[in-house]
Amino acid sequence: MVRERRDFIELTPIERMRLIDALCSNLSVLSASVTAAVVSGASADEAHAETMFGYRQALKAYATFIFHVCEVCEKESKECAAMACAQKPAPGAKGKKKQTNKAKLAEWAWDEQRERIVHVMAGALDIDLWQVFRPKQPEEDFLRLFVRLGSMLLENPAALKSKVTKRAAFEMMGSCALKWGQLEQVTTALIHLLNKCEHLSGPIAELASAAADRFENAHLAAALIREVGRVDPHDYKLQQASDAVGVRCVGAFLSEIAERMPKTTMTNMSVLMPHLDGEAYSLRSAIVSVLGHLLISQKDVVAVSDHHDNSTAPLLRTKQGFLDLLVERVHDTSAFTRARVLNTWATMAEAKAIPLSHWLVVTDLAIGRLHDKGALVRKAAMGLLASLLGFNPFAPQLPSATFAESLKDYEAKLASMTPPEEETPEESAEGKESNTEDGSQEPPKQQEGDANAAIHLNGGLEAVRTMVAALKTALGFTVQLSGTVANLSNLLTSSVASDVTEAIGLLVRMRQFNVDGSTEGVRRLLGLIFSRDQAIKDAVVEAVDVLYLSNAESPMLAAAGLSELAATAALGELASLEDVLKALVLSGRLPPTGAVMKTLWSNVSSDECSNNRKAAALNVLTMCARTSPEIVRGHLGTVCAAIEAALSGEKKSPTLCRAACCALTVVRGKDGEPLELSHPVFAELAKVLHPAAPLAGRAWFPSAEQAISALYSLHPDPEHASSEVIKAFAVATFNGNSMDKIPTAVLARFLFVLGEVSLKHLVHIEKLARSVRQARVVRDREAAEAKEKGDSGDNDLAAAMGEGAVAEDLLLDATREKAEAELLATKKGAARGLVAIYAPFVVQLCSHPAVVQGPELLRGAALAALTRFMVLDAKFCEDHLKLIFTRLKVESDKGTRSALLVALGDLAFRFPNAVEPWTEHLYGIKEWGNSLHDTDASVRQHAITMLSHLVLNDMMKVKGHISEMARCLEDVDPRVAGVAKLFFHELSQKHGNPIYNLLTDLLSRLSSDEDISPDAFKRIMTRLVGFIDKERQAEAICEKMCARFAEACLAETPKPARDIAFCISQLNLSERAFKKFTESWKQYDAALYDHEVHACFIAMCHKQKRAAKPEAKQFVEAFETRLNDAHVERAAAYNVSARAEGKEETVVAEIKKEEEEPSEEKPQTVDNDEEIPSEIVRTDSKTSDEQENVAPDLPKVATPPTSPPRRSRRAAA
What we know:
- It is found in: Chromosome; Nucleus.
- The protein is built from 58 helices and 2 strands.
- By secondary structure, the protein is mainly alpha-helical.
- Among the domains are: 873-990, no CATH class; 993-1147.
- Strands 1-2 form a two-stranded antiparallel ribbon.
- The chain starts with a helix and ends in a 35-residue tail after the last strand.
């Protein structure tokens, strides 16, 4: 045989093909001859026996030879593939390749020859082998050839890509198992392949299913399932640790076979159930999928009535048991299995296999898993909720009010249809006796009629009762979903990207089904457009596209949806929506000339639309125009008409006026030209900026702000135009009026115009400087290109004379600074600026008693104008900072206080050196500041937001004042606490982690703050210490804190030492850092008398033991023993001294020995099997007067256990 193999390898491709052709042809002819001989006659004469003997020998010879040819060719094919991978040239390598066996066999196509061979071999098994091998059974060695060949083909993934080869392999294995009695051998071979090859889980299940269909016999599938189930669950646990792929393949096979052959799987489910409690999570997950497939196959099995056939009762009980198992398994210890359970429920929901009775239960399970610690489980839970929502059996829209109303109606109908309660048997007997005694009895005909009426009534009752039950389930489902919106909103802030994207998708789905509260959730997700993760930003854009554009039935509905979203959005949501609309315009999903844009413009120009609806449409168009200004540029007439409509009529519309003015600010764009002076836009803006504008009260100010912005954006000479506006307001304010007679509204408008014009003019100057610099950059680029062409004489000369880029930048900066200084120029000989003449008046007005004690509108306008003037000049800012802080201290209006804080933040950005001396006042820790300690939560929120921006943008040095921001972590208002948490998180991400340098100072300041409770201090420091994630930083912090024990021990109370010990216990110390801590014994030895210090160090030891190696663990236990001994000794000494001085004694910790017998009390349970220190029993503190005649108890110190206990036990006091 070895000779045959060697000779076949040495054959040329042509010789090989000829040989295989001859073998296949002869075997085909032989198979046909044998079949004909078997069919023609079954005589038992010697001639027929000799013929069958010859056929049998020839069949065995051909099968053996072909098998070995296949074996050799498969082995050679694998070697050639491995050689090709090994000799693959490196990228860029050149040179001739050596002639290899692959080159010699270039003409040899084994894949084609394999198909022909296996097809012929599969056909050989169609012969009646019982007749060929009579009087004996077919030889096992002969059949084993086909089993081995089939296994060889299944093992090769490339061979299974051929449909012919795959079908032939299935036929050979199926025939051997179910036709020729080789079931055990085939099962063993398939199980071996299943554990060995990762790609065979699906094909083997398909093989078993195909064999069952061909031979109408499911024994092969049953044998495979039983073989898998017979394995000890402990063996699968070991295999999971060593060969997880094998267990995963077995699990995938079970899931596939359950989907293809649910009846067979159901019959053999008993052998698989023990593995549901095994420790191999892959197999548990697979059995969960099996349960799902079985329940899907039994979805038509429903409960039967008592008067029907009860043949489906066993199936119904089995189905109920499977449902209960799935409900229970959602609490599996493995996150993969929990996720598989939720995915199985989702598959069942899509197949409509979840009974209505379990609908609320499954929904509750999914909502509960939204808080799972595994991201995979949370993702699966949201997927399940989406499936339940999409395939719900109730309605396409799920507002709870609709179902509640329908339920109320049907309950009333049910109450009216419910018959009176039936009499009990005793009452019926009594009634019969009384009727007999009275001699009255109803005729039988009347009884029959009553019975028929009762049957009809019961049928109607059952229908109404069913409807009431369904409506209750639907109402409960909608209420559950509406309660989920808050959980999904929390997941939007998750640090895991999959949580955020899945939550966005689910909120979109809930909004499509009109679930209560989903609109608020959609508004919250808009803020994620500012996320750093591009996938999250894309999900937000896609969500808006799906909700308002792509799925809209018409452009009119799309425009109405976007307008409503803009009209109901808050200020922050509008900024988010603007970025989303920009992305939609840039991506082409919201084209500037599309149908949606045209519909929005038609709404603006329509007389039928309300002013609020027009304003919302204009806001949407303005957001889109920030990317494509031509959206508004071609409809200036419509915008002017909107301003005219807002200012005319009986009901003025400040909202529409502001929206129209805001739309004008985006007309010019970045490179646009200003409009002509005769353009009607300026006439409309003049109406808004007129002192007698028809908008009354505070409604005028937002419109005026946007009108001034539009004036500076579109006017060719905005300085002259704004000066005319100021003059007009000045004339209307001071024309013949004394200060006492000036109307408050008129003066407030004048002050507002002064401040707004000064700020816009400053921005205008910077914009002009930026445009000059950009023009210079373009000129230099053109000069560089010209220099490359050889025309560089003038440019070289200019550079040599110092007229290059540096000199031009200096000149430009000097010119800009001079222009800014002229705005408040008041010196003699200097030109007066645009608003300089009014600066002294504004300063005096802010300190005037009539204004300070006057209306809030006037006071706020005066302070706003002053702060805007301060932005113009550093000297003016320094001179009037004291006035601003004075007004901030005594200001009663919370809105004005918030505005002043924001203004101070802007001043700190503009002139950091001028504001730096007032840092303590800015934090609110000096007499003129109260920002972080303000009584109003909104003011505190503005303050901490402003300070966060200053610190994170390096405009304010990070000093010890930051402890005031740390206090905000425990603010009663969740918004303030949320901003504080975000601030410290972002601060920890900066280079060098500034929290590391600030932690010791924060500890001192917070520990000495009497307004912070001990529990609040621990929560604050736990969060701050959590940002120390580097080993060296933790080691250095521990060393610094230990050095503070010397001073802490001298304090009158043990609180400083307790706080230091707590912070040290929260550090994640490495083994080296912990050893250094133990070496610093002398520093904290004196503080060990206190039971809280001792408890913190003991907790730190237990934390070290959980992650320590055996040798390090012994070291920690020895140190723990030393701590216990020192604590008892120091506490006893302290108590002796306290009794002598009349002070309060400290608590002495009594540590329960591990070797002692447990007390009779019930042991405490510990969640998640966490190791905790032995419970320390504390005696009540008593003064020396109370314990004069009481002998002190001797302290008991337990020897530390050799291993940490699994559960704590209560010690006897």
